[in-house]
Amino acid sequence: MQDRYNYPVLAEWILVHKEHCDKLHRKHGFMVALQYDVRIRNNAFAFRVEEEGDESFSDISKFKPETADKMISMCQDFNEINLAENPYAIGDDRVGGDPIKGIKPQKQRSHRRECDIDLRSSVPPPKPERAQSRAPPGSSYKGNQYNPNHVGGRTRNRARKQ
Questions:
Q1: What is the pLDDT of residue 127?
Q2: Are 118 and 111 a contacting pair, CB within 8 Å?
Q3: Is the pTM of this model over 0.90?
Q4: What CA–CA distances, in Å, run from 93 to 22, 48, 79, 127?
Q5: Which residues of the chain are modeled with pLDDT < 50?
Q6: What per-residue string of b and e applies to 111-133 under the rule 16 or more CB within 10 Å gives b?
Q7: What is the 8-class DSSP label of residue 27?
C-alpha cells in the first residue's frame, strides 16, 4: 500500500490491525480473528470519517474491544472458539454443513445405489404447469397484441343484418 499506492498512513494502520488479528488468533483461535478482521474491514470501507474537512478511512489501527468481545461470543455460540485453523477449509469435516442451524454435512451415497433407485422408479415426473395466457380477473391488462380500434367478429356481423 505504501509503495504502490502511496498511502503510508493506511499501510501502517493495516499492519497494526494485522497485529491485533494475530493476537486474537493466538489467544482465541482462527475464527475469532477472521470475524474481527471482516467486521473491522467492512466498517472501514462502509463509513467515511471526515477529519479537518478531508474524507478518510476510519482508523483501523485502534483495537475495538467491544467488537472483539462480540466476535468471541459469536464464535462460542457456534463452537468455533480456540480453533487453530479454518474449520471450513476444503477437506475438513465442517465443509458443506450449515453453521447457523448446526447441521453437519451429509455423507455422499454411492453412485451405484443412486442408479438403482433411479431405475426402480417408473413413474414419469409430473409435467410443469403451463403459464396461463389470460390476465387475472379484474385486471385491465389486454395483452401486448391489443388493438383498441379493431372491430371483431360479432360486432361486424351485427352491422350487416341491419
A1: 72
A2: no
A3: no
A4: 25, 40, 14, 39
A5: none
A6: eeeeeeeeeeeeeeeeeeeeeee
A7: H
